[in-house]
Amino acid sequence: MKNHLEIKGLTHRFGGLQALTDINVALKKGDIAGLIGPNGAGKTTVFNLVSGFYIPSQGDIMVGGVRINAMKPHQIAAMKIGRTFQNIRLWNEMTVLDNIRISQHYQLGYGAADAFFRTRRYRDREAEITRSARELLEVFHLSDLAEEYPKNLPYGIQRRVEIARALSLQPDLLLLDEPAAGLSTADVAGLIDYIHWIHDTFHLTIWMIEHQMEVIMTLCRRIQVIDFGKEIAWGSPEEIRTNPEVIRAYLGDGEI
Ligand SMILES: Nc1ncnc2c1ncn2[C@@H]1O[C@H](COP(=O)(O)OP(=O)(O)O)[C@@H](O)[C@H]1O
Ligand SMILES: [Mg+2]
Predict the structure, then answer these.
(1) Looking at ligand 1, which residue's alpha carbon is closest to its atom 4?
(2) Residue 54: CB within 6 Å of ligand 1?
């Protein structure tokens, strides 16, 4: 079977800083894979490259056989890749419903003139977006929160809203950057169930960065470890847990 995501020789420099060197990844459709490593290892940079925020210095990023290296974030979204951010990025001054609606504007079928003159096409499309945003909230059991502002919601719920928003563009590859960061123990257990449910329900390929080992070890079938921008291991949870080089990389950075 062709790989869903294939990354070859990914290398990135920020000016004089060598952030990533020769990273290789191959995810099959439906995989749940993890990307771990100490702080500053380059994990978020990998996701920023895949989602089009930066253009790699070297290497190839292929999705379903198409090279996406030079694509912009909205083009990557159209390639059915969704993501969440290490620090939740919801618009706090907009309701939960509007947060979902605005992300769907990526797919709008009208121009600025249509919006300005509020043409029939514009009104139809807006009504369609509102309807599908409400439907999405329903699917994710978030309907009661449609008119709330994210800043007033508990962190764990904000995370769910952010994940739902990423899924509103119907991606088939979902990148989660530290989804459990800042959550309480109870919320972490809920998040694990939630991600399981999303994977089973929508048949997505999921790739996640996470510091909380319980989350990674429970959800991921395969895990890649990077340190100082280089791969040091790829393996099953058990192989990673017992890998001496991984243990060494994590000494001083919490337990594994
Ligand atoms: N936009 C940027 N400009 C310059 N340096 C950056 C930028 N983004 C990340 N870095 C640096 O790249 C390295 C990897 O960062 P990051 O990918 O955020 O690590 P991680 O997510 O593993 O903690 C760090 O040294 C960080 O300071
Ligand atoms: Mg990071």
Answers:
(1) 14
(2) no
pLDDT, tens digit (0-9, with 9 covering 90-100), for 236-251: 999 999 999 999 888 6
Query: If DSSP codes are grouped into helix, strand and coil, which group holds residue 228?
Result: coil
Per the DSSP assignment, residues forming a β-bridge with 61 are 7
Phi-psi region of 178 (alpha: psi -120 to 50; beta: other; left: phi over 0): left
Residue 33's nearest CA partner among 50, 12, 55 is 50
Q: What is the C-alpha separation between 207 and 214, in angstroms, rounded?
A: 16
* 183 secondary structure, DSSP code: -
Q: For domain 1-80+171-256, give the CATH number.
A: 3.40.50.300
What average pLDDT score do residues 213-229 get? 96
CA-to-CA distance for 116 and 223, rounded, in angstroms? 49
The residue to mutate among 45, 46, 87, 178, having the most atoms of ligand 1 within 8 angstroms of its beta carbon, is: 45
pLDDT digits (tens, 9 = 90+) for 12-67: 999 999 999 999 999 999 999 999 999 999 999 999 999 999 999 999 999 999 99
Q: Distance (Å, rounded) from C-alpha 181 to C-alpha 227? A: 20
E strand or H helix that includes residue 164: helix 155-167
Domain map (residue ranges) of the chain: 1-80+171-256, 90-169
Helix (H) or strand (E) holding 140: none
Q: What is the mean pLDDT of residues 225-229?
A: 97
How far, in Å, CA of 54 to CA of 17, rounded? Answer: 14
